[in-house]
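Run log // design_07
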């Protein structure tokens, strides 16, 4: 993982900040720079700021303390990204899960392989372009632009739906609280680290009442 990240970051020499989304980024990122400095095969610019995050699908299985520090919801500029790719393709396997239960190990493996190969082929077909034509820069930019425009339109629709509710909630709160929360958010976005704990969900555990009286 360290080698892959270092090699990938070499492709962006002029960038000063990088967002890395990894399933166990909370553990991997702890001594990353130390491992790089101690290795003769790894290189990384000291001026490069690395922000680590965990995809939303995997983050749900982490401990609660990981949520504020590694959620993509609290990374400025990341947009509303789930950070998952491969795992979202697994749901299609549910269609054949039932029929493979009674198969032998070899037959089961063959069916799964055939299904995944077919899935990969259909993704290639859905590109709708000849591979040589896809790599043409102008056409590729047009495809990306169309995709971004579609996402932008959906985002504007979502904003128009949630905006009035947010404004109504803000109007019902004390202005001093809003100013305090806004200042805390600004510090959290700039300094990150422990400052992101303001987004930690605070739950108070209530004492359990046990009735030890039994009536006969």
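design_07 sequence
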């Amino acid at each position: 993982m360290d080698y892959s990240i270092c090699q990938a970051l070499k492709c962006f020499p002029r960038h000063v900040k990088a967002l890395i989304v990894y399933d166990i980024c909370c553990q991997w990122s702890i001594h990353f720079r130390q491992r790089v400095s101690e290795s003769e095969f790894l290189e990384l610019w000291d001026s490069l700021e690395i922000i680590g995050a965990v995809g939303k699908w995997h983050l749900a299985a982490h401990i609660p303390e990981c949520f504020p520090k590694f959620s993509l919801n609290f990374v400025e500029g990341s947009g509303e990204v789930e950070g998952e790719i491969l795992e979202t393709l697994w749901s299609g396997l549910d269609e054949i899960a039932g029929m493979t239960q009674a198969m032998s190990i070899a037959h089961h493996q063959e069916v799964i392989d055939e299904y995944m190969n077919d899935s990969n082929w259909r993704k290639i077909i859905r590109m709708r372009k000849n591979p040589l034509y896809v790599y043409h820069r102008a056409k590729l930019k047009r495809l990306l632009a169309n995709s971004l425009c579609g996402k932008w339109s959906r985002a504007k629709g979502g904003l128009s739906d949630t905006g009035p509710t947010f404004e109504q909630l803000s109007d019902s709160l004390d202005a001093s609280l809003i100013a305090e929360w806004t200042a805390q958010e600004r510090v959290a976005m700039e300094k990150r680290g422990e400052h992101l704990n303001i987004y930690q969900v605070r739950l108070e555990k209530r004492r359990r009442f046990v009735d030890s009286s039994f009536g006969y």
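The mean pLDDT is 81.
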